[in-house]
Design goal:
heterodimer, A: 423 residues, alpha/beta, Rossmann fold, 2 domains, 7-stranded mixed β-sheet, 4-stranded parallel β-sheet, 13 strands, 41% helix, B: 372 residues, mainly alpha, two-stranded antiparallel ribbon, 6 strands, 4% strand, globular
Chain lengths: 423, 372
């Protein structure tokens, strides 16, 4: 009894002492960095008189490591160019790169670190990771460009989903197949998709297009860990599908195409933008991918004639010789540019706070980085564009793909109601 | 045990306690979000590890199903506290009630498994409990209305009597803005102290001795009148409830539950915690949990300053890889060289310094006195 009394007394004293000393001398009490710089520019977290810190939460060791690496490299290339040209607002850009390895817990820890030390997140890979901190992005007011194209991330003014969402790509893709007479009303089409928002978002688009064209979707849901598509191909073959859609990873797409072609199935295969990577062309699946495999994507392929694209391809190959020129390079560079352009605009208004940055960003309704379709950032409850490129793998082409159809918005996609914040 | 042998805690011990507590209370006033996040994760893990240590360390029952019970706690809380709508089901209970409910739910899940837990021994239980992880994964991915499927579900913030453990409304204490993480830090600290205190009580009392006897010699335990099967089942339930509480805290710290997190790897991580920390003691579980959960984030954070580690994206050994390699190396080193874990190392150090300080002659006979 006596001992517990003594214990309590000591504990209470400790608590009071700790609380009393805590208030003074804490860096947090003043709010850390911020205030107004020497040049009269209001500064948010991560901004000083000399630097602007931006955070890149990427995956360099997990399942999306190749994509994460391309995006990170491309963004660093862009920041280097900006810094060489004198920086923004007289400040140099400093990228803080953190690797979450596609692990949600690590991503949450990394977000906690970055949210206190950087102004914006030009690259945050993975929809499960971004979804995990979505509420906090809102309360931290931190401008984020997710490297994920699902509708679940729409509806938050601080999150800018670039380009189209997966569902819009699928609608445009199915319309294109109809136009090219690959499929016709009354046909069955198969859809192999990942569980989770990527695949299910794409499926929603496919179902919408099917409903309006009297098509039937034969669903094949798979897990990210399923690598062998034999049973899916067999099931689709048996169902007698006239075309196959795939919204999964490159590995699954390669397996699907390889097995389907070896079984003598000649149906066209249309993949979402994350279903292909140029590294596949160095594998045994390359011949299968050269026949009737297409990709629906918002990003222009590296091989297109756009001058900005040519320059990017050159610069990137110079800085990172031997690294693949995949869609991540375009996405990453474009994402970085969206943020730096917003920074420039925020600088004009002398407001480099998080509020100032998002205001500057949302004031743009026709952003064109010369790397694809112009985007409208003034709303956040709809995709920034509804135009989709149809591309095709081709060995030897820069980035491994060539354009089949330029960016097009189908009538079907125009009238499509995009689900906001869900899928 | 020391509690019983010396009813009055010594002064240095009390001072150490007070200093430790003061530091823990002061941390949220100084540390940035990164450390608070890591700290809350570590404290939640410590609660879970204490539970596993009761089962594995003290009773000798191997469990690979800890991740399942963590998931029951996390998703139980989300389901009980969450609102229905948007294709999701939820009961919308007051959040404090949901916490209690989630812990009881985890206990219930443990209870349902206890007929198996009561009968199987050691490794056999490990294999049986392994099945739980896979069943759990299947349910989490497919019971969409409750779990939100593969993408998980938002976690409603805890609210007790109008005080919300969320970012808003912002609370200012001594000029320091208190947001969700600062508040959660205190919640986690309080729950950890409570959990540790209860576990100590169990271990130092009659049940603790019975559990240790079961671990050391089951037949002897039975002969001495310990109802072995009943004890084994009961410990399993208690351990599940600890896991449930840890799961609730983890969910609050994440603010979103994702099924992939609750996989086999998590179960193994908890086993690593108690092995590294030291089997059988509360302090060991806490030390191990802190060690295992803080190492990877700290490594990722401070890798820039370490030699031989390349910055992420430049090729070479990246910080994440390096932390995994080091983590593996430490587990191997502890198993090889420190059979008692970090806690055992501490006790050995203390014993050796105490022996050196105490120069009183041992009751051994001097050589010349020894009979020939």
């Amino acid at each position: 009894m006596k001992s517990s009394l003594r214990k309590t007394a000591v504990s209470l004293t400790a608590l009071v002492l700790a609380a009393a000393t805590a208030g003074c001398g804490s860096g947090k009490a003043t709010g850390g960095s911020g205030g107004t710089g020497a040049d009269g520019v209001k500064q948010g977290p991560g901004v000083t008189d000399k630097t602007i810190k931006l955070g890149l939460a990427t995956d360099l060791t997990g399942v999306y490591a190749p994509l994460g690496k391309s995006i990170t490299n491309a963004q660093q290339l862009h920041f280097e160019e900006i810094n060489k040209a004198g920086g923004i607002c007289g400040r140099t850009i400093e990228a803080v790169v953190r690797d979450h390895g596609y692990d949600p817990q690590k991503a949450v820890s990394i977000y906690s670190e970055l949210s206190g030390s950087v102004l914006a997140l030009p690259h945050f890979l993975g929809s499960p990771m971004v979804s995990a901190v979505k509420q906090r992005i809102e309360s931290d007011k931190i401008f984020t460009i997710p490297s994920a194209w699902t509708t679940a991330l729409l509806g938050n003014q601080y999150i800018q989903v670039t380009g189209t969402t997966y569902d819009v790509d699928m609608i445009n893709g199915i319309q294109w197949m109809l136009d090219k007479k690959m499929i016709k009303s009354g046909d069955k089409i198969g859809h192999v998709y990942f569980e989770g928002d990527y695949g299910e978002s794409a499926l929603r688009g496919a179902k919408y297009a099917a409903q309006h064209n009297n098509l039937t979707i034969v669903e094949q849901k798979i897990k990210a860990t399923d690598n062998d598509m034999s049973s899916q191909v067999a099931a689709l073959n048996q169902a007698g599908v006239k075309a196959i859609l795939i919204s999964a990873g490159p590995r699954q797409a390669a397996s699907l195409a390889g097995i389907a072609r070896s079984r003598g199935m000649k149906q066209p295969i249309l993949g979402s933008n994350s279903a292909f990577s140029p590294q596949l062309l160095d594998t045994a699946a390359a011949p299968a991918l050269a026949q009737g495999f297409f990709i629906a994507t918002a990003g222009a392929p590296m091989s297109s004639d756009l001058p900005a694209m040519k320059k990017l391809a050159d610069d990137y190959s110079k800085k990172y010789p031997g690294q693949p020129l995949d869609s991540g390079v375009v996405n990453g560079y474009g994402g970085a540019k969206i943020v730096t352009e917003a920074l420039k605009k925020a600088c004009e208004a002398k407001d480099l706070t998080r509020e100032g940055l998002i205001k500057a960003h949302r004031s743009r309704n026709a952003f064109d980085d010369g790397l694809g379709t112009p985007m409208d950032f003034s709303y956040w409850d709809k995709p920034a564009t509804r135009k989709t490129y149809i591309t095709q793998p081709k060995k030897g082409a820069p980035g491994g793909v060539v354009t089949v159809q330029e960016a097009t918005e189908s009538e079907l996609a125009k009238n499509y109601q995009v689900p906001v914040g869900t899928f | 045990m020391s509690e019983r042998t010396s009813p009055l805690p010594s002064l240095p011990r009390l001072v150490a306690w007070a200093v430790g507590l003061a530091v823990m209370v002061a941390v949220p006033f100084y540390a940035e979000a990164f450390f608070l996040q890591a700290g809350v994760f570590a404290m939640a893990a410590a609660i879970g590890a204490i539970g596993l240590n009761l089962l594995t360390g003290s009773t000798g029952q191997l469990s690979l199903g800890h991740a399942f019970f963590l998931a029951v706690g996390a998703y139980g809380y989300v389901y009980l506290a969450g609102e229905s709508g948007n294709g999701l089901a939820g009961l919308g209970l007051p959040t404090w009630l949901a916490v209690v409910g989630a812990v009881l739910l985890a206990g219930l899940a443990g209870g349902l498994f206890s007929p198996i837990a009561g009968r199987l021994r050691g490794t056999y239980l490990g294999i049986a409990s392994l099945a739980l992880v896979f069943i759990g994964q299947h349910i989490l991915h497919n019971a969409h209305a409750v779990t939100g499927g593969a993408n998980g579900r938002d976690v409603p913030p805890l609210e007790i009597a109008g005080f919300s453990f969320a970012d808003t409304p912002e609370l200012v204490v001594l000029q320091v803005p208190f947001r969700a993480l600062e508040k959660l830090w205190f919640l986690a600290l309080a729950l950890l102290l409570l959990a540790a205190w209860i576990a100590r009580g169990v271990l130092n009392g009659r049940p603790g001795r019975a559990m240790n006897t079961i671990r050391d010699h089951e037949i002897a335990a039975g002969v001495m009148g310990v109802p072995v099967a009943r004890y084994r089942a009961a410990v399993f339930v208690v351990s599940s409830m600890y896991a449930g509480l840890a799961g609730v805290l983890l969910a609050m710290a994440f603010r979103r539950t994702v099924p992939d997190y609750f996989g086999l790897l998590l179960s193994l991580e908890y086993l690593a915690m108690i092995v590294i920390g030291g089997l059988g003691t509360v302090a060991g579980a806490v030390i191990g949990a802190v060690f295992v959960s803080l190492l990877p984030p700290l490594f990722t954070r401070y890798a820039d300053g370490l030699p031989l580690i390349a910055p992420p994206g430049s090729g070479g050994v990246s910080p994440a890889e390096a932390s995994r390699i080091l983590y593996g190396a430490i587990v191997v080193a502890v198993v090889l060289f420190l059979p008692g874990g970090l806690m055992g190392l501490w006790q050995r150090l203390r014993a050796s310094t105490a022996a050196r300080r105490k120069s009183t002659p041992s009751p051994r006979m001097e050589p010349e006195e020894q009979p020939a």
